[in-house]
């Protein structure tokens, strides 16, 4: 059997198999994940995405981790949908800073048809900058997914967030099945999927395995697979729980989650997503070794901070990493 065949994607993972990966001795797990990573990717290349919150706060959903839910008092000021020109200016700056993909996020339960024309303009103009386009706008109908694709949208982000068993402890205003339905509309419209979840919300290892098992048994593995470390936001139920109990996810368990994601979805871009702010350089390096090959850059996620560009440039330089397919190659500052 060739090396590639041994690492061919599978869609028949069982939950028990995924749990067994988590239980491997750490060194064996990371070694195996690194081998899978190297079978499909150049391990020195990291894909860079930049986020912008194009519609902030006041969201009708009750996701227990989210600064933008209208159900919780987080002190965040709600804002209306940004003008396309302002979004494009931010995208141009992101591109000039080295980002390859620009992701527009809206604090909506679902996209409303009345907002489609403005979004279509935004998407088309960002694409015209030569960037990959991504959006995360809540639930979509099949027709809305087709309209976004026609406007030039390459990726749609819609997360499963956690395993099916823990889901009810995270959000009750949207079902797991509704998330799966939106993902299938996105695939049917011919867009690439960006789908992952959050760890560190008080879930068990079995729940983390449950999330990765769901992702690995989708009809198509996500093209991008974000693993978000919970950013604990004061005023949210899950953020407050972590802040009061001081129970952030153990960093070794976080690396295990990245490694298992790499093994079960070998060809996906595994994104070391939210939670990089406050992670040591060494922990980030371990995540890259374990198969993470995508990050958000630019100092800010949607409403919470990220390391600034200079810090990330230094990290890339020290780890001999380079941005994947960047429109601007000199992200890593010359000495
Ligand atoms: N409103 C849309 C939705 O939820 O479908 C899109 C925006 S929402 C903020 C995008 C994703 O960000 C969520 O699905 C969740 O996985 C992640 N996220 C939100 N708040 C987070 C936090 N405090 N820590 C980590 N990830 C978070
Ligand atoms: C994803 O999985 N993570 C990003 C993106 N998709 C939209 C969002 C992270 C948000 C973190 C909290 C915040 O900044 O509000
Ligand atoms: Fe709304 Fe998305 Fe936040 Fe949930 S995660 S409250 S849907 S913005």
Automatic annotation (TrEMBL):
One of its GO terms (molecular function) is 2 iron, 2 sulfur cluster binding. It comes from Caulobacter segnis (strain ATCC 21756 / DSM 7131 / JCM 7823 / NBRC 15250 / LMG 17158 / TK0059) (Mycoplana segnis). Homodimer. Binds 1 [2Fe-2S] cluster. The cluster is coordinated with 3 cysteines and 1 arginine. Residues 44-267 form the Radical SAM core domain. Pathway: Cofactor biosynthesis; biotin biosynthesis; biotin from 7,8-diaminononanoate: step 2/2. Belongs to the radical SAM superfamily. Biotin synthase family. This is Biotin synthase.
């Amino acid at each position: 059997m060739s090396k590639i065949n041994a690492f061919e994607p599978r869609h028949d993972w069982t939950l028990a198999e995924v749990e067994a990966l988590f239980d491997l001795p750490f060194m064996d797990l990371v070694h195996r994940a690194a081998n899978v990573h190297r079978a499909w990717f150049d391990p020195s290349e990291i894909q860079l995405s930049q986020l912008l919150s194009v519609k902030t706060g006041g969201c009708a959903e009750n996701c227990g981790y989210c600064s933008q839910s209208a159900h919780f008092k987080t002190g965040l000021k709600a804002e209306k949908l940004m003008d396309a020109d302002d979004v494009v200016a931010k995208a141009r700056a992101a591109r000039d800073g080295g980002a390859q993909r620009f992701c527009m996020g809206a604090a909506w339960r679902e996209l409303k048809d009345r907002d489609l024309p403005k979004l279509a303009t935004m998407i088309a103009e960002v694409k015209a900058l030569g960037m990959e386009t991504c959006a995360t706008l809540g639930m979509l109908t099949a027709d809305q997914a087709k309209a976004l694709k026609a406007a030039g949208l390459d990726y749609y982000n819609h997360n499963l967030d956690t395993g099916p068993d823990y889901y009810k402890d995270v959000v009750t205003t949207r079902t797991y099945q509704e998330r799966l339905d939106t993902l299938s509309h996105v695939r049917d419209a011919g867009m690439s999927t960006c789908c992952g979840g959050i760890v560190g919300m008080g879930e068990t290892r079995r729940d983390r395995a449950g999330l990765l098992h769901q992702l690995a048994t989708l009809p198509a593995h996500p093209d991008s697979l974000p693993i978000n470390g919970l950013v604990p936001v004061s005023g949210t139920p899950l953020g407050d729980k972590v802040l009061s109990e001081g129970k952030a996810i153990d960093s070794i368990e976080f690396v295990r989650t990245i490694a298992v994601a790499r093994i079960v979805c070998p060809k996906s871009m595994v994104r070391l997503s939210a939670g990089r702010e406050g992670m040591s350089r060494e922990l980030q390096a371990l995540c890259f070794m374990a198969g993470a090959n995508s990050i958000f850059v630019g100092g800010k996620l949607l409403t919470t901070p990220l390391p600034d560009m200079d810090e990330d440039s230094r990290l890339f330089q020290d780890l001999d990493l380079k941005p994947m397919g960047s429109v601007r190659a000199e992200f890593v500052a010359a000495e």
